[in-house]
Design a protein that fits this description.
The protein has about 375 residues and is α+β, with helices and mostly antiparallel strands. Helix content is about 20%, strand content about 20%. A hairpin with a 2-residue loop joins β6 and β7. α1 runs antiparallel to α3. The radius of gyration is 22 Å and the shape is globular.
Length: about 375
């Protein structure tokens, strides 16, 4: 996986590094009739179900579930803000062709569960209406070491797929479509860990600390209508607000803690994801539960307490976080919510005394209005940039 704060060439997307492993069989150990010279069609994996790129909402947020294993986020600026409407329309058309496998730039690869999600930054939203959701930049927080090019941006291109090979090919096609109308700020690829079952139809991955990540969120339709999707005004209805935060993790120092100490940092059991207050992995932590001697079962500075929506007084955020590698191990935190205060108020409270933040350093930060869904009749971004 690659990350960079300097501007690479768009052709860099075309580079792919692979590993080929050859397995030799000793002579006489296997008869010719037993050799797997022919693929057994009955054993071939079923095709990955496609995810429709069109509809009320953009794909790559709640669909598919669970989220794909691989991600690439590209953050860029527009050279001329006046080009935003035709650029978004062209990107929408290209996304439709790429996700349905009709774009020759796929090089014959099957798109599978490919999704592409597009967002626009505060500068572009303010040009339409400074009062719209998504018009505010993120404030600065503690434990940040962010270069100027890694803060903010006009355009987000989020590409997700289970097939890692598809992602750089799709990225190359989309950046070629954008041409010289954009300048890349930074990019980050990531991978999701193995999924752990949280509830019926719901799974969440482990992060590099070994804990299950993204258990709590607006998972039901009612919760998503309340806390995830924008209800209005009309130009942004059915969109959402995204926050991206790239963080380096101090794995060596965290690994020196005992398992009990690590669990106290998170407020959950490392192996099962169950809150320290008991219940199941899907149970919300009981923040009032105490030991017989009066100590909170979920410590006062535990992440599960400091980031708890009820304790903060905000709605739920949907997280699609990805683990990253190089130059330091870390996490690409992505949250979706319909009120930016859901994120800013939560992080402000965490800033005060969340034990987890002691092991993180943020190196990139941005927020975007994720545009409403689109179709052939209603191009991407047309409701906002009319």
């Amino acid at each position: 996986m690659h990350q960079a704060d300097s501007r690479p060439s768009r052709r860099a997307f075309l580079g792919a590094t692979g590993t080929v492993t050859a397995v030799g069989l000793s002579a006489g150990c296997q008869s010719s009739s037993d050799r797997p010279d022919r693929a057994d069609r009955s054993d071939a994996p079923a095709p990955t179900p496609p995810v429709s790129p069109t509809g009320r909402y953009q794909a790559g947020i709640t669909l598919p579930q669970p989220a794909q294993r691989n991600l690439l986020a590209v953050v860029a600026d527009l050279v001329d803000a006046e080009s935003v409407r035709p650029l978004l329309a062209e990107l929408g058309e290209a996304i439709g062709e790429l996700t349905t496998g009709t774009d020759a730039r796929l090089m014959g690869l099957a798109p599978g569960d490919l999704t592409v999600t597009i967002g626009v930054g505060p500068r572009l939203v303010r040009k339409v209406d400074p009062a719209l959701p998504g018009a505010k930049d993120l404030p600065r927080f503690s434990r940040e070491q962010i270069a100027p090019r890694a803060r903010g941006g006009d355009l987000l291109i989020q590409i997700c797929a289970d097939d890692a090979l598809v992602i750089p090919v799709v990225a190359a096609a989309l950046l070629e479509q954008a041409g010289d109308r954009i300048r890349e700020r930074w990019r980050q690829s990531g991978i999701r860990g193995s999924n752990v079952r949280v509830d019926k139809g719901l799974a969440a991955p482990r992060n590099l600390f070994g804990f299950v990540d993204g258990i709590v969120g607006p998972h039901t339709k009612a919760e998503q209508q309340r806390d995830l999707w924008l209800a209005g005004p009309a130009p942004v209805a059915h969109g959402t607000l995204a926050v991206l935060r790239r963080m380096e993790l101090d794995l060596p120092r965290f690994a020196k803690l005992s398992v009990a100490e690590q669990e106290a940092v998170f407020g959950r059991r490392r192996a099962s994801g169950v809150p320290l207050s008991g219940g199941t992995i899907a149970s919300g932590p009981d923040l009032g539960a105490k030991t017989p001697d009066g100590r909170y079962l979920v410590p006062a500075d535990a992440h599960a307490r400091r980031a708890h929506a009820t304790a903060v007084g905000v709605g739920l955020m949907l997280r699609r976080s990805y683990s990253i590698d190089g130059p330091a191990p870390g996490l690409l935190f992505i949250s979706f919510q319909n009120d930016i205060r859901t994120f800013t108020n939560t992080l402000t409270r965490m800033d005060n005394s969340d034990a987890l933040l002691e092991y993180t350093t943020t190196t990139a930060s941005a927020t975007f209005l994720i545009l409403p869904g689109f179709s052939k009749q209603h191009p991407l971004g047309s409701a906002l940039f009319s």
